[in-house]
histidine kinase (Prevotella pectinovora), 926 residues
Amino acid sequence: MIQNKTNFGRKLSTMVAAVMLASVAAMSLVCCSEKTHKYRIGISQCSDDSWRQKQNSEFRFMSYINDSVEVDIKSAKDNNAQQAAQIDSLVDEGIDLLVVCPNQLDGVTKAIERAYDKGIPVIFFDRTTNSNKYTAFIGCDNYRIGFDLGTYIANQLNGSGRVVEIRGLDNSSPAKGRHEGFVDALKNYPDVKIVASEGADWEQTGAEKAMEKILAKTTDFDYVYAHNDRMAYAAYLTMRRHNLSGKVKFVGVDGLLGKGGGVEMVNEGILDASYLNPTGGQEVVDLAMKILTGKDFNRSNSLSTTIITKNNAELTLMTDLNAEQQRNMLERLHNQVDKYQRYNSGQELFISLLGVLLVLLIAAVVMMRKSSMAKGKLAQQLTKRNEELNKLNTEVIALTQSRLRFFTNVSHELRTPLTLIVDPVEQLFKDEKLSKHGRNLLVIVRRNANALRRLVDDIMDFRKIQDGNVKLHLCNFSLAEKVRQWVSDFYPTVEKKNVNLEINTDKYTDSDFVGDEEKINRIVFNLVSNAVKFTPAGGTVMVTLSDMPDRKVLISVSDTGKGIPEEDREKIFERFFQTEGTEGGTGIGLAIVKAYAELHGGQVMVSSHEGQGSNFIVVIPREHSGEQLEDMAVESCCYTVDDEDTGADNNYTAIPADEDAGVKHSLVQKVIGDDNKPTLLIADDNKEIRDYMKALLSDDYVIIEAADGNEALKMARTFHPDLVISDVMMPGIDGLELCAELKRNSSTSQTPVIIVSAKALDEQKIEGYENGADSYITKPFSSKLLRTRIENLLSSRRKLKDSIMGMQDVAEDPVGMSSSDQEFVERLRLIIQHNMGYSEFGVEAIGREMGLSRVQLYRKVKAVMGISVVDLLRKSRLQRAKSQLEHTDKGIAEIAYEVGFSSPSYFTKCFKDEYGMQPSDIRSGR
Ligand code: FRU
């Protein structure tokens, strides 16, 4: 999880870094694409003809080559009102300077003055107004143009001729200047007459009309002087239409280069001459920039002009051709640039949007990061807190477990001395010679020993409950009878305390009760014991059994004690809980009551009135179904034998234990020499236990002993005892390992092992059986139980031995025998049965047949059947002989030879030793 968090943190950091990088890049792009400050120049054109168009392209060209200039061109198409409106709108849009070519002298004056008054510099170009509110003027000297052309025509006419004039728009400054200059020039040539003068509007159509008017008046003239080339051409066309063009010459103004321009017309002879009126776009922008950037400038700026005639027209055209191509190329380039810029500005917009998006994304990521960090911090705190709680919980569990372990261990330790108290006491009670005083003292000892045993049992049971290892051992018994018996055990106690103890079973039908007798006993005992304890002298404890619906039984134990405080009532069934003033108890008695009641599918309740007493009620079903009932018979049997039969045998003679090797040797001799008594090996590190067992068993068995597991193993391998009794907890290898080792080795595998241990939990017993134990007895043990188990196990071995000696097959599943041992025994039986008739058939021959050496055979046979091979063969022969004597009429000698004895007298001796009678006694007794 921590790893995941780190990864997330790393990923987030990488993401933030990437986003920031991208943002910086985007911002850089945006920053880099930002233009330097541009001056915005508004250009107001009065007309939109070829001369104006050329001029406009020059304006744009200037803006292309100058990063700081931006032009906004508007054309009014010779309309004053429109031009005035356009000027206003340019001003409103925000221009830094106004370049204006006023249509007429007074038509747009006010609009221009408004702009000027707002502080916007105003440049007049080509035309002016009458107003003085302008910043600068740039253009030709129109008076000069008129004057020069008047002089030129007069000269061409050699001072004598007739001239007509087509004027530009009346009341416009060029028309005025060009007319006045022309008139003044001709004043110098009195024979050159202006025979007609008509006004037009600078355009072709207007000029044609003017020409028609003139022709209507006169066709006798030599020159047409028009104020611009367009109008001169219109005059030419008109004259041509009237077939009059051949004798008249035409002169115009503008001298435009390019196709259809004035220079070309001069070159082609359409016009006699033109006069250069420079469009001057570059000069206009240069002047504007001077004004805008605060540089020095002239208020009046004249553009240089010249007359164009057939003499210079061609050269001018050629010069211009290259320049025109360059202009066109530049125009095309600029269009490309424009296109790119439009595209670029689209990209800029996109990048700007992306930038904004990235900024938002960064903000979102930062917020997420912050929130994630806050969450992470919170999660860390919670994890830490959780870990602390878990640790605390683990510590509490460990503490509880260690407390329970401590109690359990103490209980184990108590069980051994308890064995040495309870069992001898029970045996002493049977001594009829015991004095009355001695018996009274023994009663006290027994009562206290029993109290101690119950305490130990409570603790052990509670551990079992804690571990969830408690199972019901069901049996069918009379509940009323048992409860009466259990309650009566308290009579001596209540008598002394002067407490009335009553039992009432009137409302109980005493039939069919199935339960775990031991656990029901514990429930009743704990409840009655508590009730008696808390009932003062003169009080009453009442035990009642009642029928309940649904085949349930109610066991009620009430007292007249001080009662239980209300706040404690729910807790009294919790482990270790003690109400005030109950010091001295373990606090687990009622917890066991509850657990056992619930294990029976029942429940326990309490009602109490402080100062009046308490009433504990247990309700349990009368029976338990299925699997458990099947176990009933077995379990009830076990329970009776295990714990209740305390019958003792006082007639023992103890053989003192001694660790000395010499003594051991004497014991070995004794073991080998005494075939009549089985040999028991007792392995226990507690000398008192060994002594006690020896005292119990030495009358019937030869006892050898070991104080630890290793020693026990060695002795078992050396002496091949008939049975081993071992404690579990011992120095060296413990009892379980000893058992497992004995069972693993073929020479000892058939030696029965009884584990006697204070470890009373089911799983501990299971562990014992898993290690090969043939029986498991818990301390404190009953001597009777121990004897019974020893006898049963030895008897089952004996039966096995007999089965080999006799004719019958080995039982299918002899007690505790492995399948390989069963196979061994069956082979041995067949070999002996088939060959015993040969007197020379002995141990060597059996070993050969079995594929074992003499020693191996001895060990194996001794281990499996507890008998030597020689004895086994002899007993087998005697057994068959006995059978022959009983069931045939063969002679004794014949039988003796038939079963393999080499002499009848030796047969008779052996028979007598084995059966305590002569072979002839069988015959005579038939
Ligand atoms: C262009 C034009 C030119 C002329 C000038 C006078 O609009 O008509 O032909 O020379 O204006 O302002």
User: Anything to note?
Assistant: Residues 310-429 form the longest helix (120 residues).
